[in-house]
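Entry 14. Structure prediction run on the chain below.
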Amino acid sequence: MTGIPHAIGAKVLDACEETGSTLALFVQGLVEVRGAPRNWGRLFAQMKRVGNDTLAIAAAMAVFTGMVLSLHSGFTLRKFGAEEATSVIVALGMVKEMGPVLTAMLLAGRIGASIAAEVGTMQINEEIDALHTLGINPIRYLVMPRLVACVAMLPALVVVSSLVGMLGGAAVCSAYFDIGLRTFFDTAFEPMEGGDLLESMVKAVCFGAIVATIACRRGFQTRGGAEGVGRAITSSVVSSFVCIFIANYFVTRFML
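Output returned:
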């Protein structure tokens, strides 16, 4: 019987230790941001990578998400004669929830996995040890540019995703519920407040930091050759998803 509490306690301690190590890596990355003016080349390369690799997929995901959200909301509200409220539901849903969360998950699956694989491969090939030997700080060279790129670009991607999602919802409303585009957007933006937009941007910044930090942390932990790189990628994506959902709750609760 004592084995079960012991195993649970060990798991809890491991989780606390991993959380502390990840937070420490995040703080170290923030400290190195002061050296960003001397690393514009790597910064812009990472920002371009995040934007180019994610924008088209994020837009495609958002437009169909907005269309599905509009369909479900519209046909449900039609039963109560309130289908004109569909625009408000789609707009607030995309801006406050669907846009930030789904785009962050896409970032974790595409960019986060790539970062974990890249840093993990460097760890396996002892390239990170070589950086230490050359007097180069791996946090400044590897973590900081990726952290800044994800934090800076995810809000822009969320803005695009939210707008494209609303366009998809507007197209469905026009086709099925006789709500014109102008009427849709007039109704959608009327109840929207600055706090709603602020909540979306706060979530985007938090989620970008989560994805970059966890991906780099998993990369640094990589051991065991190609199999270890695969484990690092899987762990990075899954951990990012879980942390995104947890952070989404706390940011939402704090911003209410």
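The longest helix spans residues 40-78.
Filed with the rest of this week's runs.
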